[in-house]
Amino acid sequence: MARETDPIGRQAAEGLILLKTGATIGILGGGQLARMLALAAAPLGLRCHVYSPEKNSCAFDVVHAFTCAAYDDEAALARFADAVDVITYEFENVPAATAAFLAKRKPVLPDPKVLALTQDRLIEKNFISDLGIATAPYATVHSATQLADGLEKVGLPAVLKTRTLGYDGKGQAKIMKAADANDAWRSLRGVPCILEGFIKFEREVSVIAARGQDGKVECFEVTENEHRDHILHISRVPAKVTPALNTEAVRVATKIAKAFDYVGVMGVEMFVVRSKGKQHVLVNEIAPRVHNSGHWTIDGATVSQFEQHIRAVAGLPLAKPLRLGKKVEMLNLIGDEVEDVERFLTQPGTSLHIYGKGKPSPRRKMGHVTRVWPAK
Ligand code: AMP
To answer: Is the same domain home to 209 and 347?
Structure first.
């Protein structure tokens, strides 16, 4: 990393990055998260250059520049690195070799070491547990025999998950009784797995945390999430949790952000459980990126999760987020739901976000709607 102040204004002594107006942020991945990041960068006077192998990437529509090339195309990656001032990403499955190649040329934030910790559910759970943070009981499962041992340890019902590449319920099999175990193991094709006890949670929540280069952390309030068919359906704030639970959830997310030495926005998904009459959180998953459950912040808060992420990677101070309105709800538009949206255009307090992904397909996130209920 350069040691003197260069044209982008990198601050020498602290090794911090401070982007100036007109600087360019490179984003790996070209989906709706990259699109909303680019839209948030513009008012700060920053440009975005998206790198994605998909030729119809919806982020291409709104950026200063884009590169459409494979993640192992070193010539394209090198040109991309030359064209940008700092690099970030919108998804956690950035190949390790891609991140390492780019990190030799330009700062990559959050640090790619975070990818290695979050791409594998087992490594992630071990990391969280080592911080003294509660999770569902879990066991490593690399064979049918280990699955039988794991069921002894975590109990029934349980859920078997592939260690890598699972999302929106893909790569998961629920085990209700011991006799289901072999089918579950076969359905995931014998790849390395983690077995988790199935938690009877009261509700699911998330904390969207931002950490700046100066180490300051700002969290959005706890968000309550309702899933349909394993896909996020509705997010609501305020969540129906006690003030003590809100404090605990924010403390847990802050602890993880600090332990990762994180720069940017991350989403921490949690289950709320009740024991001895009190609510507690168990961490389910960490997303090292902006998160679907934080989309309400675009219209429902004084600063959005996307702007916070851009501020963090650009070296700007974070804002203290405040909710607008007495409650806010975000509804995902999945598949052809995006074709029936006219009513949202006239509904009071409602904002429509269509991602421009072209033809809808089932289970695909095509847009979202946010409704803000005014304080009075
Ligand atoms: P994940 O891919 O781990 O985020 O899981 C997707 C969804 O499956 C979660 O949001 C929960 O609704 C459910 N789920 C995952 N793991 C568990 C668990 N151990 N106990 C109960 N529900 C779970």
So the answer is: yes
Q: Under a CB-based contact definition with an 8 Å cutoff, are residues 300 and 325 in contact?
A: yes
Q: Count of domains in the chain?
A: 3
Are the CB atoms for 225 and 205 separated by under 8 Å? yes
| Residue located nearest, by CA, to atom 9 of ligand 1 | 230
**Confidence label for 250 from pLDDT (cuts 50, 70 and 90):** very high
Order the strands of the 138-141 sheet from edge to edge.
138-141, 193-197, 158-162, 172-175
Residue 131 counted as domain residue: no
Q: How far is the CA of 164 from the centre of ligand 1 (A)?
A: 15
Q: State pLDDT tens for residues 22-81.
A: 999 999 999 999 999 999 999 999 999 999 999 999 999 999 999 999 999 999 999 999
CA 8 – CA 162 distance, rounded (Å): 42
Distance from Cα 314 to the centre of ligand 1, integer Å: 33
C-alpha of 76 from chain center? 26
Q: Is residue 123 part of a domain?
A: no
292 close to ligand 1 (CB < 6 Angstrom): no
